From TrEMBL:
One Pfam family this sequence matches: Amidohydro_1
EC number: 3.5.2.7
Gene Ontology MF terms in the entry: imidazolonepropionase activity; metal ion binding
Name of the protein this chain belongs to: Imidazolonepropionase
Domain Amidohydrolase-related, residue spans: 72-410
GO BP annotations, alphabetical order: L-histidine catabolic process to glutamate and formamide
Database matches in Gene3D superfamilies: Metal-dependent hydrolases, Urease, subunit C, domain 1
Any one annotated GO CC term: cytoplasm
Keywords: Histidine metabolism, Hydrolase, Iron, Metal-binding, Zinc
Organism field: Candidatus Criblamydia sequanensis CRIB-18
Gene name, Swiss-Prot/TrEMBL: hutI
Amino acid sequence: MKETAQSLIGPFKEVVTMEGLPLEGPLKDQSVPIVKEGGILLENGIILEVGPFEDLKKKVNGSISHLPFPAIAVPGFIDCHTHLCFAGSRVSDYAKRVSSMSYLEIAKAGGGILDTVKKTRAASKEELIVSLNKRLEEVISQGITSLEIKSGYGLTLNDEIKQLEAIKEASLKSPLTIISTCLAAHICPPEFSSSKAYLDFLMKKVLPLVKEKNLAKRVDIFVENGAFEVEESIFYLNFAKTLGFEVVVHADQFHPGGSNVAKITKAISADHLEASSEKDLLELKEAGVIPVALPGASIGLGMAFTKGRKILDLGMPLVIASDWNPGSAPMGNLLAEAAIFGAFEKLTISETLAAITSRASHALSLKDCGILKTGYKADFTIFETSDYRDIFYYQGSLKPSATYIKGTQVFSKDKF
């Protein structure tokens, strides 16, 4: 049998492994597992061991990469909620919002999601792939190694399939771990007389074809005034589950109700939750639904944040995602959003880091990333600093020096 080459990277001032931390509830910074003057030993893209660099040097059967500057390593970031496949811009919506129009008012006036739908329908699959690839390059440079991408800007059979095929084809050429979600139930398009008629169409035509082509394993729905109501959303998601899809929910962004859908359908996650009450959150906890905060949308819309501190204090597993989309969350910077959210919600640094690494992996049902430990994928991000807390202290202005996915360096600054 051919012997495989090992590789050792280090020494790091700190390797923040996130190993052994609980999935739920508050975290203290003192509990974060850190290996000082550590190294990461890997083979075939998998971590063999994390430990003191000098000890690992005696074990390695292969190359040793010495870092040229003081640095720390953390698990690669995981963004579990994005809308990265789209065409066009919604800068006109933003200008209206900062001039005091609400998100729902803009949508009623012809802007909002349907504006992006028009532009995405007009784009070819090849054009969508080109623009998506550029965003994926940006994602990697931000230290993200796994992410989710939704459809939802097609809203016809052909255009939803076009979006999902663009995501699949781009993912085949990207080192990122990419999870596709069918969000055809984003909003009712003008071709249909009612949301019920549209959901019937999705259940009869779209979801079966998505399943047949294996374009997504997850189904999402936007439960909100002007989108889809509670009862029809429950029926739709339960149907999706009969086809074998996992389900997630856009819940309680502007009004309550969506969290009830997530509870009843036992969704993997309920995302947004800005309008959730403590009762709503406790019901999600009882149902085992993961709460996902999307601070990018709060920043983009000038709205209150999800109650992150409350979620943790209730003993729940807070996750943070970017919601990168052309309308409500155009920033597309997970680290900056998480840091700002942490400052406003009084999250410890360890709680914020867990929300985009070890805890975020569960929102995508990923079992081999988010933690730096033996047997997990060698997905990690390197920052030029001696203290991992600087990542959040600088609120996104401290950029990664390198990103590794499955042990391969997929991004680096010039001097690395």
